[in-house]
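Sample intake — Hexosyltransferase
Collected from: Xyrichtys novacula
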Amino acid sequence: MSGTKSSMEPAISQINGKLQTSRSALSPPERIGKGSIGLHSDWWSQARQADHKSEWDGGTERDLNGEAAASSPTRTGPLALWYLSISRPTTNYVGHMSVPIRKTVKPPKNITFNNIRTRPLNPHAFEFVISEAKKCESVTPFLIILISTTHKEFDARQAIRETWGDESTFTDIRILTIFLLGKNTDPVLNQMVEQESQIFHDIVVEDFIDSYHNLTLKTMMGMRWVATFCPKAQYIMKTDSDIFVNMDNLIFKLLKPTTKPRRRYFTGYVINGGPIRDMRSKWYMSRDLYPESRYPPFCSGTGYVFSADVAELIYKTSLHTRLLHLEDVYVGLCLRKLGIHPYQNSGFNHWKMAYSLCRYRRVITVHQISPEEMHRIWNDMSSKKHLRC
């Protein structure tokens, strides 16, 4: 691994040089971690401020291509009202969710019941910007780890590559680590992710706007990617960039490579609850979007594992399932339609947990782990494998 890191240093330095010359805001760069891409601290703070202004609490609306939405006219006379009535926008924005409005269209004469029944309610009308389509051409992975991340989390991605997400850790088991992203409204961040992708070839991007309210689109992109490019994989894990994964427990105690692969299998930290109707909550769900009083059982989005056949089943089911912004709840809805019941597993921990060698040896996932903590935990656990608890 150390040889790989050193061989990548010149390539990363070359990328930093290109970014310095093309954008003065990035010069001179600072290193943000061994093997990671450099960013200028002033630019970084400006980017944070710009990103904060574009969040859901009053930021500028943007269309699917990141362009600012036109402001509404101030005069509303009869002519203006008539004009507005025939020039409504084609996209509905609810917290920047990329959900197309369904237009009233006169049905064709040859329409049939089957056409009505099979027409997608929620078409995933997005294209891959970065696909890594050949990732599984020469190998059949035992496990694919799909990691939901954001453009600015360079440190987190690099920490995962150098710790539990290192694909070379298990020489006799093929594991793929894939980072999932949408498009950012900042072209500089998009460019940096493209450069990062050219080095590591572990990033997949679709052309929806990357945001909290589009996390469901990001997960469905991951399901689509597996079904399209890696359908012969055995197992899939979906997790987040602030999660520490105990790979030994995941592979040898849960998935057990020597046993027959399971099908229609789904496990994680199972939650049984209902929608929160308080509009101040991060997890608010309106009655219009979800009128039921209870959610079906679902696994916390911090980490869940399923057999690879389920990826295609969930993706195809999502095309006929009304989109919800709560990604883990939405996956649970798709599982209910499929008749797949998620299994509870106490090894998946979706809370922050203070580090203890023996405690971390018993779990599969731990939430809210920083890049620095990830390195410390990994180094400590790796160097003390001979110790008993």
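Post-analysis note: Confidence is low (pLDDT under 50) at residues 1-7, 18-105, 107-117.
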